[in-house]
Structures are given as C-alpha cells and as structure tokens.
Input
Amino acid sequence: MYDHGFLYGDGIFEGIRAYSGNVFKLREHIDRLYSSAKATMLDIPLTKKEMINAVVEALRKNELYEDSYIRLVVSRGEGDLGLDPRKCTKSKVIIITDEIKLHGREAKEKGLTAIISWVKRDPVDATSHEIKSLNYLNSILAKLEANNAQVDEAICLNKEGFVCEGVAENIFTVTNDLVVTPPTSTGALRGITRQVAIDIAKALGYVVAKKGVTPADLFLADEVFFTGTAAEIVPVVEINKRKIGDGRPGPVTRKLMEKYRQLVKDPAHGTSVR
Ligand SMILES: Cc1ncc(COP(=O)(O)O)c(C=O)c1O
Output
C-alpha cells in the first residue's frame, strides 16, 4: 500500500505486444524502459537480458503463445507516506500479460474521430512524456475531454501551440505525399511504432520530416494517422468536426498499415515466445 508507484505515480512502464508468438520490438521496449529508469534515477533489479527472459517466461507461464499484450511496470517500491524516494529501498517489477485490443477492426477500416484538447502536454522541463512514467494524468484529462465530446481520441498541443501527440499515440500528417511527425522536442514520446512507421514510409519511397505541426496543418492535411503499440497504425478521419481529406482513410496510411501488419510477425523484428 505504501508503494510510491501507487501513492505518487513514481515509476515507469512499457506496453508491448506479441503477434503470433513474436514479441514485437521487445529489445527496443526494454531499452526504453531502462532509459526511463535512468532519467528517473530508478534502479531496476534485473539486467536487460534477465528482463527479456522474464517477459518471455511470463508469456509461456500464461500460455500466451500467439497474440498478447504485455505491460511492464517498475515502481519505486515501498516507502513511507512522504514522497522522498530515498525511503524506497527496493523497486518492484510487475509483468502483466493479457489480450487487450485498443482499437478494433472497425476503427482501422473507418478511421478515428478526434478533438484537439484544451489540456496541454506537460512541458519538457516538467513531467515530460519523453519519459514513460506512471504519471499519465495529463493524458487522462485529455481522454476525458474526448469522451465528453463523444469522439474516439484527443490530440494534445504543447504550450507553444504545436501539435505534440495523442493521449498514448504519436501522430503523423501526410500532405502532398510528404509524411510529417512532430519532433520529440514538443514533449512527445519517442514512440517505437513511430520509428517503425518512419522506416516503412522511407522504404516505400516517401520523404519523412520531423517538424512542427500546427492545428491548421492537421485540418488541411490529406491524411492523419496515429501510431502506438496498442493502437498500431490507425487513420484519423475527423478532427474538431473537420473532415481530414475526404473523411476516409487515405492511400498512404493504408499502405503503411498493410506493411506494418506484415512486419509485426517478422522474427527479425521481435523475440520468439517459443
Ligand atoms: C504518450 C505516448 N505517446 C506515444 C505512444 C506510442 O509509443 P509506442 O509506439 O512506443 O507504443 C505511447 C504509448 O506507449 C504513449 O504513451
């Protein structure tokens, strides 16, 4: 009960997915977990290799040999009721495995609706989402606004008014075949799916730029899509009641989704459960 992950959100996490027994980009997720630990001065009591083995072992024990979702949580551990992390002498590792799906087939086919929320992304000199910490109230407040507006997702701007990311997704625009995603200096997470989408887009011959995106850039884009481990690559077809393009998933997004579906099962991009 006195775990500071619970009391103060003092901890870090990763969301990971396995497809047909291939834990997609497991090494990259583990690397990011240890980066989050470094930035928050949190000691993880396992080496990276031990952590990889522990994830695979958890999937085997739960007999999840096909598709699954893995949530890795490392909390600061038990302390007292004060927030001083020095009181927490042993961090805690929790591995959850499940069969979660965020956006179903319908969302992929029709695309999502979204609003730009009034909740600004936490600044990079505060609880920045560049670090994947247990502090997600910023995203939760934005998600509440999406729910209130009866749309699927919320888009967060940063304090300067530039587009940052979704609540748990990175965002891309496609305009005249130029693929753009905001830089992480806006406060966005360095998404693993974001990097995969960039690599796929480049391999398909598109020019990709990491540069500032304004709300008007979103409204006027031919296509907008989100990327994320849970969301995968998913089209956004309406933002603040403006149709994006013709209001249907665009051809570039669909091509990327198709390639992504192939890649997630590729053993060269993952770790086998078997
Ligand atoms: C705030 C935030 N942005 C972006 C992402 C997408 O990152 P990834 O593709 O690594 O899952 C996530 C999900 O993990 C997130 O929580």
Remarks:
- The longest strand covers residues 11-19.
- The chain has a mean pLDDT of 96.
- The CA atoms of residues 179 and 244 lie 15 Å apart.
